[in-house]
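ok so I'm stuck.
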Amino acid sequence: MGKELYQVVAYIALRNKDGSPMINVPLYVKVSEINKNGMTETQESVMHRISEIMIKRNEKQLNDYFANATATGAGGLPPARGV
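replied:
not stuck anymore, here's the structure
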């Protein structure tokens, strides 16, 4: 029989028998296989999809910013913050 594999999916809080809190207790699930990146195939697929969405969102924000900066003659300088 092969080695059993477990993946941390969350950290939870529990209580000891005396009522005191136990914090950051890892919650594990049994997985059938972990790839070379230390993730299950489902996790890796989700990470790639999230990354793809975030890259597209960032590209749109940058394109919108530079289009606005060019149109207003701001020269591409970022807006002042906290002034």
